[in-house]
Write a structure and sequence with these properties.
The structure is a homodimer. By secondary structure, chain A is α+β, with helices and mostly antiparallel strands. Helix content of chain A is 29%, strand content 26%. The first copy, chain A, has three domains: 90 residues, OB fold (Dihydrolipoamide Acetyltransferase, E2P), CATH 2.40.50; 262 residues, 2-Layer Sandwich (BirA Bifunctional Protein, domain 2), CATH 3.30.930; 115 residues, GAD-like domain (Gyrase A, domain 2). The interface between A and B is large, with 117 and 117 residues.
């Protein structure tokens, strides 16, 4: 089937040409006997017109929305120009018309705006994806993936594939399991990431590897998570942190230029984990606006405010022109603080020179003045431990930025968060966890050995507009250090042998220094297409309860399938 | 870490330059006090020399094979030139030397030739992959994948991702299942191919889709199969068979040119399924050599040869200069015939004008002459049904081609096998199976309805050097025809509703005519790299019993994991 043009291409320069088009009927109407048809394909819309005297007029009368048709015709000037579309200057007077496929009335309207429920959209995903806005998300995803790949290939990276049927090594998230038929009672696991494989590629001497890798986590899902997701998995040998960072910056700069025609400045800002937590209350600060967290701990140590004077920290956010916030506004913000582990939210404000607020009664006038509030200022304060105060004020900062519209549109602010602690101590389980993962290299193995709490990691996260879009590290390439790390994490020799034995083994045959990073493709696409719903950028996503609404998966299987696997269902 | 050159780059033009290299120690030897080190990276080898007076000589003495080192030095002329490597004119006189990583003696030798057992190679895959020949397989795979992708992107195809966690729709091969934790007793299935998803992309209006797609089949494995494999999955709307074929030919021509610098001629030969079976005894003929099957059925109908005269078919292969074959040779060929469903292998030969052979005694002299055997000819004959004769002679043809070295090296012969029957009747189960899959369009739906046995398919396979490297078809895009197809396959309305309900549903909302093809990437890479072992072109393959020898997967899992899934193991 040969067509002369896509439906976004024709304009006045094609007048009187004979053209051959195909597509879906986006709209059709009968105006004084003339049939007008908006013909849509993945590129755009062209208006067809069929006159009553045309031999195909009867065919045209049968046509309904979403029919698939092909048409021959001649490009003519249009009476009423439509500036909304590329082809708005012309229309095509039909000489031949064929219906390729009929269509029932679709359960969701095929247009950018939809009021369909998400469940309906997911059930009829093939129609939801027909909406131009959704097509654009997918096309952008394609373009972004190609652009990222192109830079990596140009930089000498090999795209290599790793298995999906791997081994279960639970550490961190929950694995999806796949029962083996040939060895009943044993299981494969779907990879949470190709971490070990990519390190083995380095040991095997490939030096530069990447993969657009599917990863799986059987977690209770949050709004921006899917049970399967795609990461751009990168690893290189003979590199240090700066080499990986430079590479990833190049990748992002080229991708933004190619896909969005946006110039991103290099090098990206760097900030230590400690500074991020102190000033932004999060390890993924949104740098598109200021509004830094300030430390009032010393100040309140000397003042007799209940719940303030005996807490480790009192920190706050000073919001200019925020004194007009109502009680209701502040209650909503208090809820956010409490949901994010803050014990309380206090405030002090200056309205027309009058200082008021929940804790003012405990402060002398000079103490109030010492806060330095200008007319219109409101100061929010949260007391407590460093972690809880940071978490609460981090969340409050975002809520206030939204409330006060501090976030500029179409601005992309990259940030490297660096200088991470290697470990995190879990008080409940009385053990250390790896802050990134157990293959991350310590800055100094001696500190890991003697004072694990203080050990720093050669780790770096890349953050875009408040989202962590990637995490990476220089890896341990020494068998002894790897053993020490597992040891510190409380893994027994048997655990290590059983789960990672072959990997620890592999390290001893000449492992080059190496490191890498993984970019969350879904998040990158989400941010670059300006949507806040990860499902918009995944062709066939699952619900928050990991269901495929279209296919109805997961589903029952035949008893014979379970018998072959020697599996029984039941508690 | 910054290095000035890879280890394949230096030559006489770099004399006296200071260079900075890194890599693995491929070889090291002490000749009269001088230490020579062959330094290897993924590109090649450079010889380092360390003199006894050098401050780093002590370091050099510590170095063993497979140590990872970096070295600074000066390029000097080499005394004994090595023409086997790019850098054979020079060596690097070391000024600084650092050991980055030590290495124990590896269990397999890191060189192109290996006598290691396959199990050992798979267990230490990271070392096996370090061998230059294996690196080359992986690098070629990378290049082939990029070349295929590039053509598809240039042709306007979008690379779109489909889920790995899908729904079990057993029809054909066995699914791998993934138990759901949130809905105990239900399962996802890993896709055998993205067939339904890619058709949904067409319904959704994407028009041109491809994916480098991981697919899974829980089959008893043959030598050239893996439980997971990669296919280049392609689908397009508004196409006919010729459009898909032209596209795929372009893809292959460009890929061979880019990766192997081989010019492949277009268009590829076309042959009907019927002709392939008749003349080559297989649906994937190797076109690199002639040796066609000849039909002697009529001839033997008139002659009283036992087991020949009452069989439907007697067909044969005439081998020139084959009369010298020994009894032992012929016994071996008879075994092949029997293994491939042939009931017997007879032969007639002409040695120095004397006609002899197993059936000669049943033939008159004039009947013997009528066979027209020239001096040195041997004619192999197999009696039986069409299917059994074809299968036996197809296998015999390959065996003879190997025996007589009829297969030229470095020749690539593509072939389209077309005009396939739509269905295959299984006598045992008394039902039809789809020859390709149930979404393949019939040439004429009326024939499917009234005389399914005779129905032909709009299907096409692409064959290279006797391997099926891809299969495709124009798909059914009409709901009624799809229902008719399921009906003919004996699926009940309930079956259809349960397994494919949403898909049949989807067809009614304006489905464009569409079709596509899937290329088996692993096989393409295997053929382009001239290996006969599919494991050579998969980074981390599994054994024939679907085991990962390196990771030891599948493996036991913790009881808590099974409890969460509410699963019990046992008959």
């Amino acid at each position: 089937m040969k067509y002369t043009h896509h439906n976004n291409e024709l304009n006045s320069s094609h007048l009187n040409q004979e053209v051959y088009l195909k597509g879906w009927v986006a709209k059709n109407r009968n105006l004084g006997g003339l049939m007008f048809i908006d013909l849509r394909d993945r590129f755009g819309i062209t208006q067809l017109v069929v006159k009553p005297e045309n031999a195909y007029y009867e065919t045209a009368l049968k046509i309904k929305n979403e029919y698939v048709i092909e048409a021959k015709g001649v490009v003519i000037k249009r009476e009423s120009i439509n500036k909304g579309i590329n082809t708005g200057d012309i229309e095509v007077e039909v000489t031949e018309l064929t219906i390729l496929s009929s269509a029932e009335n679709p359960p969701i309207i095929i247009s950018n705006d939809t009021d369909a429920l998400e469940d309906t959209r997911l059930k009829y995903r093939y129609l939801d994806l027909r909406r131009p806005v959704m097509q654009n998300f997918m096309i952008k995803r394609h373009q972004i993936t190609q652009a990222i790949r192109q830079t990596l290939v140009d930089e000498g990276f090999y795209e290599l594939e790793t298995p999906i049927l791997g081994k279960s090594t639970p550490e961190g998230a929950r694995d999806y399991l796949v029962p083996s038929r040939l060895y009943p009672g044993t299981f494969y696991a779907l990879p949470q990431s190709p971490q070990i494989y990519k390190q083995l590629f380095m040991i095997a001497g490939f030096e530069k590897y990447f993969q657009v890798a599917r990863c799986f986590r059987d977690e209770d899902l949050r709004a921006d998570r899917q049970p399967e997701f795609t990461q751009i998995d990168i690893e290189a040998s003979f590199v240090e942190q700066i080499d990986v960072q430079e590479l990833v910056e190049k990748v992002m700069v080229n991708t933004f230029k190619k896909v969005l025609n946006v110039e991103v400045q290099r090098p990206f800002i760097q900030m230590s984990y400690q500074e991020a937590m102190e000033k932004y209350g999060t390890d993924k600060p949104d740098m598109r606006y200021e509004l830094l967290i300030k430390d009032y701990s010393h100040f309140f140590k000397t003042i007799d405010v209940p719940f303030f004077n005996d807490r480790d920290f009192v920190k706050g956010l000073l919001v200019e022109n925020g004194s007009h916030l109502t009680r209701k506004n502040i209650d909503a913000l208090t809820d956010i603080v409490k949901k994010n582990h803050g014990e309380a939210l206090a405030y002090v404000k200056n309205s027309d020179g009058i200082i008021s607020g929940s804790i003012v009664k405990f402060m002398s006038e000079s103490e109030q003045d010492a806060l330095g509030l200008k007319q219109g200022d409101i100061l929010f304060l949260v007391p407590g431990s460093f972690d809880r105060v940071s978490s609460a004020l981090g969340a409050l900062r975002i809520a206030i930025a939204n409330e006060f519209k501090l976030i500029p549109n179409d601005v992309y602010k990259f940030l490297w968060v660096v200088d991470w602690p290697l470990l995190e101590y879990n008080e409940e389980e009385q053990r250390y966890y790896a802050k990134h993962h157990p293959f991350t290299a310590p800055v100094d193995p001696e500190v890991l050995k003697n004072n694990p709490k203080e050990a720093m990691a050669k780790a770096y996260d890349i953050v875009l507009n408040g989202y962590e879009i990637g995490g990476g590290s220089i890896r341990i390439h020494n068998q002894e250090v790897q053993r020490l790390m597992f040891d510190t994490l409380g893994l027994t020799k048997e655990d290590v042998a059983h789960r990672f034995g072959f990997f620890v083994d592999a390290l001893k045959y000449g492992t080059p220094p190496h490191g890498g990073l993984a970019l969350g493709l879904d998040r990158v696409v989400m941010l670059m297409t300006n949507t806040s719903n990860i499902k918009d950028v995944v062709a066939f996503p699952k619900t928050q309860s990991a269901k495929d609404m279209m296919m109805q998966a997961p589903s029952d299987v035949d008893q014979i399938q379970l018998d072959e696997l020697q599996l029984k269902v039941g508690k």
